[in-house]
Design a protein that fits this description.
Blueprint (H helix, E strand, L loop, with lengths): L1 E4 L8 H12 L5 E5 L5 H5 L16 E3 L2 E4 L3 H9 L2 H12 L4 E5 L6 H9 L2 E6 L3 H17 L3 E6 L12 E8 L4 H8 L3 H8 L5 H14 L1
Helix pairs in contact: 1-9, 4-5, 7-8, 8-9
The structure holds adenosine-5'-triphosphate and magnesium ion.
Pfam families: AAA_31 (PF13614)
Protein name: Cobyrinic acid a,c-diamide synthase
InterPro entries: AAA_dom, DNA_Partitioning_ATPase, P-loop_NTPase
C-alpha cells in the first residue's frame, strides 16, 4: 500500500506527517519512507544530509527506527525536470512491493514528482493549516485530484480547531494536530516528535494522534 502525503503549499506539515505516520505504522508493519522532495525534508528529519550523488529512485536506503528510509539525492532534481510521470509512478510502485506500507513525502508543488506520487498512491493524505492560502491550495489540489480521478483525506495541521471545508475529492477528517514546541525540540535532535515524546513524556499525546491518523487513513 502506498500513502502519499501532499499539499503544494510549503511549510504545512507534510514532512512531519510523513515521518510520524511512518514511525507509528512501523510498530506493526514493514514500512518504507520515500523522500520525493529534492530539498530532502524527510532525510533532514532523521539527520541525513541530502546526497549529492545521483541514484535511481529507490537506489539507496537506510534503516532508522525500524523504518526503511529512502533519502533525497541529486537524481530527484533530474526527474523533477526531465522525468515522465508514468515512469516515476512505475518506479514508486516497484519500491512499494517490498513493504506493507510505503509512505511518500512530496515537495511543495504539483510537479512531476508530486503528481507521480499521487497517481501511484492508494491513499492520499493532506495536512492543511487554517490559513487562507493553505485552504486555497487545498481547493486547487481538489480540482487536480478530480482531473486525476483520485480522492484524498485532509486533516488540520498546527491548530486545535478542525478546518471545515466541503470539497469534492478531498474529505476533511475531524482530526487535528495542535501546535507544540515539541516539534522544534525533536527536529533539533533529528528524531520524529513521536519518538521524542516516548523518551521525554510518560503519556505521549502527539504520538497518539499520529497513530490515530494511521488507523484512519488505512481504513478510509
Ligand atoms: N504541529 C506542529 N506544531 C509546531 N510546529 C510544527 C508542527 N508541525 C510541523 N511543525 C514545524 O513546522 C515546520 C514545517 O513543517 P514541515 O517541514 O513538516 O512542513 P512541509 O509541508 O513538509 O514543508 P515544505 O513544503 O517546505 O516541505 C517544521 O519546522 C516543523 O517542525
Ligand atoms: Mg517537507
Amino acid at each position: 500500500m502506498i500513502i502519499t502525503v501532499i499539499n503544494q503549499k510549503g511549510g504545512v506539515g507534510k514532512t512531519t506527517t510523513a515521518v510520524n505516520l511512518a514511525y507509528g505504522l512501523s510498530k506493526q508493519m514493514n514500512v518504507g519512507l520515500l523522500d520525493m522532495d529534492p530539498e530532502g525534508g524527510t532525510s533532514f528529519s532523521f539527520g541525513i544530509r541530502r546526497d549529492k550523488r545521483e541514484f535511481p529512485l529507490g537506489g539507496k536506503s537506510i534503516n532508522i527506527f525500524n523504518i526503511e528510509v529512502f533519502p533525497a539525492h541529486l537524481g530527484l532534481l533530474k526527474l523533477e525536470i526531465g522525468g515522465e510521470v508514468e515512469d516515476v509512478m512505475k518506479s514508486i510502485v516497484k519500491i512499494a512491493e517490498s513493504f506493507d506500507v510505503l509512505v511518500i513525502d512530496t515537495p511543495p508543488n504539483l510537479g512531476t514528482l508530486a503528481v507521480a506520487s499521487m497517481v501511484a498512491a492508494d491513499k492520499i493524505l493532506s495536512p492543511v493549516t487554517p490559513q487562507p492560502l493553505a485552504i486555497e491550495a487545498v481547493r486547487n489540489l481538489d480540482s487536480r485530484l478530480q482531473s486525476l480521478n483520485k480522492k484524498a483525506v485532509a486533516f488540520t495541521s498546527m491548530s486545535k480547531k478542525p478546518i471545515d471545508v466541503e470539497l469534492k475529492a478531498v474529505k476533511f477528517l475531524q482530526l487535528s494536530i495542535p501546535q507544540s514546541r515539541l516539534f522544534s525540540e525533536a527536529s533539533k535532535l533529528g528524531v520524529p516528535v513521536s519518538r521524542y515524546e516516548e523518551i521525554r513524556l510518560r503519556r505521549p499525546r502527539i504520538e497518539k494522534l499520529y497513530e490515530e491518523l494511521g488507523k484512519v487513513i488505512l481504513s478510509e
